[in-house]
C-alpha cells in the first residue's frame, strides 16, 4: 500500500456532558460518563503526540467542551504547540470574560451553533432556554476580534427557515456560516423519522443558500452541504479512513471517525495505554478501511472509489448490517432502496407513537 | 476594503494563520475549517504581508532577498488571487 499520510486534523472530544439536549446530536446513545473522562495530564499528552505526528487543525468539541474546567489549560498548550485551534460550542457556559481569556491564550476561532433563528424553536430543540445567551455570546466573540463562525444544524423541523437563519447571520456580522445538515448517527438516527427533511425542503434550502452566497460574496462565506440521503453518491467519510482525521473520545479511545465506536469487529485503542504514533500507523483499527483491500462489490471495481472510498462505514453498518458494504446512500448500492424507504416513512409521518427523543444531559 | 495598488498595505485576513509545518515540509495557511499548502512563491509573498510594508516595498524586499529582478507582475497577480480567496486584506 502507498505510504500512510500523517493526520492533519485532531478532534478532541473532551466531554460528552452538555447542558443542551439536541435530538440531532451525533454523540453515541451510550454517552461516556464524567468519571471515565481523561484527566488534564492525559489530554496534554494527546495534544503533544498528535502535533508531533503532524496534526495542525485542532477542534475542541463534545458534548459541550466549556463544561471542562481545564479547557483554558488545553487551549493555552495548543497554541504553544502551534495548533490552529477551534472551539466548537453551543455558547452555554461562556461569558464575555471567558471569550477574552481564550483570546489571550491564543485560541484561533470559536464556532457557535444555533438550533434555529428564533427563540422558541431554538429553545424547544435545545431542550432549554439558550437562544438569548447564544446571541449575546456570538456578539461577544465578534467584539473580541474573532472571525465569527456560526453553525446552524438543519433538519426537517427548521429547514424552512434557512433564509431567516442567514438573515440572522448577516445581522450578527458572521464571517462564516455553516448550514450543516444533520448526519444520521447517534441520537439523530434514533430520531430520523422526525428529522429527515423532504426533497422539496432540501432543494428549497439549496436555492436560498445559493442566492445568499451570491449576494454576500466577499462578505460572508456560506457552506451548505446537501444531505447524503438526497444525493446519489455518499460523502467521503472523514476524507478517507485514516488519511487526515483523528478523533479522541472523552474516555481516551482514539477513533478514525467520531462514530467508529459503534462498528463491530473494530478493535479500538485507548490513548491511556498506547501512543498516537502507534495508533495511527500500526493499530488494526486505523488500518481497517485504509486502502482498498477491504472493499466488496460494487465498490471494489467502481471507478469512483478514489473519490468517496465507499462512503460511510458506520452508515453501511447501521443500515445494511455490514460496514464493508457500500454506503447505501450510493445509488449503486444494492441496498439503496433502504434510503428511499426511510424517506417515505418519515414523510408519511408514521411516528405518532414514537416521540422526539431528547438527548440525555 | 481598499484596492490593490503599489502603496496599499496587505496583511493576512482576520483568523488566518501562516506557518511552517515540519511534518508536511511546507508552509501552510490555516483558517476556520481549512488549510492550504503553499508553494514557495506564495509563501515568500505571504510572509511579507505583515500589515507594515506596502506593496512596492514588499516587491523590492523580495527582489533583494531572492536576488531576482522583475517580480512585480507575478507578485501583483498573486496578490489579486490571494485577495479573491479571502486570504489577505488591505488596511
Ligand atoms: S459503489 Fe462504492 S465506491 Fe462506487 S460510488 Fe458507490 S460507494 Fe463509492
Ligand atoms: S464512518 Fe460514517 S459516521 Fe463515521 S465519520 Fe465516517 S461518515 Fe461519519
Automatic annotation (TrEMBL), chain A:
SMART domains in alphabetical order: Elp3 (SM00729)
InterPro entries to which the protein is assigned, alphabetical: 4Fe4S-binding_SPASM_dom (IPR023885), Aldolase_TIM (IPR013785), Elp3/MiaA/NifB-like_rSAM (IPR006638), MoaA_NifB_PqqE_Fe-S-bd_CS (IPR000385), PQQ_synth_PqqE_bac (IPR011843), PqqE-like (IPR017200), Radical_SAM_PqqE_MftC-like (IPR050377), rSAM (IPR007197)
Superkingdom of the organism of origin: Bacteria
Binding site for [4Fe-4S] cluster: 18, 22, 25
Residue intervals of the Radical SAM core domain: 4-219
Database matches in Gene3D superfamilies: Aldolase class I
Cofactor(s) annotated in UniProt: [4Fe-4S] cluster
Catalytic activity: [PQQ precursor protein] + S-adenosyl-L-methionine = E-Y cross-linked-[PQQ precursor protein] + 5'-deoxyadenosine + L-methionine + H(+)
Molecular function in Gene Ontology: 4 iron, 4 sulfur cluster binding; cyclase activity; iron ion binding; oxidoreductase activity; S-adenosyl-L-methionine binding
Cited PROSITE patterns: MOAA_NIFB_PQQE, RADICAL_SAM
NCBIfam families in the cross-refs: PQQ_syn_pqqE (TIGR02109), rSAM_more_4Fe4S (TIGR04085)
Family assignment from sequence similarity: Belongs to the radical SAM superfamily. PqqE family.
Name of the protein this chain belongs to: PqqA peptide cyclase
Name of the gene: pqqE
From TrEMBL, chain B:
Any one GO biological process: pyrroloquinoline quinone biosynthetic process
Any one GO molecular function term: quinone binding
Isomerase listed as a keyword: no
Pathway listed: Cofactor biosynthesis; pyrroloquinoline quinone biosynthesis
Domain of life: Bacteria
NCBIfam families on file: PQQ_PqqD, PRK02079.1
Name of this protein: PqqA binding protein
Organism of derivation: Thiothrix eikelboomii
Amino acid at each position: 500500500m502507498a505510504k500512510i499520510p500523517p493526520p492533519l486534523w485532531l478532534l478532541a472530544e473532551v466531554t460528552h456532558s452538555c447542558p443542551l439536549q439536541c435530538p440531532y446530536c451525533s454523540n453515541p446513545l451510550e454517552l461516556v460518563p464524567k468519571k471515565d473522562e481523561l484527566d488534564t495530564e492525559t489530554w496534554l499528552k494527546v495534544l503533544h503526540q498528535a502535533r508531533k505526528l503532524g496534526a495542525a487543525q485542532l477542534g475542541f468539541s463534545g458534548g459541550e467542551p466549556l463544561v471542562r474546567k481545564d479547557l483554558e489549560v488545553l487551549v493555552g498548550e495548543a497554541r504553544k504547540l502551534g495548533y490552529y485551534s477551534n472551539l466548537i460550542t453551543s455558547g452555554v457556559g461562556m461569558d464575555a470574560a471567558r471569550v477574552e481569556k481564550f483570546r489571550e491564550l491564543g485560541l484561533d476561532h470559536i464556532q457557535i451553533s444555533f438550533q434555529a433563528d428564533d427563540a422558541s424553536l431554538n429553545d424547544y430543540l435545545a431542550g432549554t432556554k439558550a437562544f438569548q445567551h447564544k446571541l449575546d455570546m456570538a456578539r461577544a466573540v465578534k467584539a473580541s476580534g474573532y472571525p465569527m463562525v456560526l453553525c446552524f444544524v438543519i433538519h426537517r423541523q427548521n429547514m424552512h427557515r434557512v433564509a431567516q437563519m442567514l438573515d440572522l447571520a448577516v445581522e450578527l456580522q458572521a464571517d462564516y456560516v455553516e448550514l450543516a445538515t444533520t448526519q444520521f448517527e447517534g441520537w439523530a438516527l434514533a430520531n430520523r423519522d422526525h428529522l429527515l427533511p423532504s426533497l422539496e425542503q432540501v432543494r428549497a434550502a439549496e436555492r436560498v443558500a445559493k442566492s445568499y452566497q451570491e449576494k454576500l460574496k466577499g462578505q460572508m462565506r456560506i457552506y451548505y452541504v446537501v444531505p447524503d440521503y438526497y444525493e446519489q453518491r455518499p460523502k467521503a467519510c472523514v476524507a478517507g479512513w485514516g488519511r487526515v482525521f483523528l478523533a479522541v473520545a472523552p474516555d481516551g479511545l482514539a477513533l478514525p471517525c467520531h462514530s467508529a465506536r459503534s462498528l463491530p469487529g473494530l478493535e479500538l485503542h485507548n490513548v491511556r495505554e498506547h501512543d498516537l504514533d502507534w495508533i495511527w500507523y500500526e493499530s488494526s483499527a486505523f488500518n481497517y478501511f485504509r486502502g482498498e483491500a477491504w472493499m466488496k462489490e460494487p465498490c471494489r471495481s467502481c471507478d469512483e472509489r478514489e473519490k468517496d472510498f465507499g462512503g460511510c462505514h458506520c452508515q453501511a453498518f447501521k443500515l445494511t448490517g455490514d460496514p464493508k458494504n457500500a454506503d447505501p446512500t450510493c445509488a449503486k448500492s444494492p441496498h439503496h432502496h433502504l434510503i428511499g424507504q426511510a424517506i417515505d416513512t418519515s414523510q408519511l409521518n408514521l411516528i405518532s407513537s414514537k416521540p422526539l427523543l431528547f438527548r440525555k444531559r | 476594503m481598499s484596492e490593490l495598488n503599489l502603496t496599499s498595505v496587505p496583511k493576512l485576513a482576520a483568523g488566518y494563520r501562516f506557518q511552517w509545518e515540519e511534518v508536511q515540509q511546507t508552509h501552510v495557511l490555516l483558517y476556520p475549517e481549512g488549510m492550504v499548502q503553499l508553494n514557495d512563491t506564495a509563501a515568500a509573498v505571504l510572509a511579507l504581508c505583515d500589515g507594515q510594508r506596502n506593496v512596492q516595498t514588499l516587491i523590492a524586499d523580495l527582489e533583494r532577498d531572492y536576488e531576482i529582478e522583475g517580480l512585480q507582475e507575478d507578485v501583483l497577480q498573486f496578490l489579486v488571487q490571494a485577495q479573491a480567496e479571502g486570504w489577505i486584506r488591505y488596511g
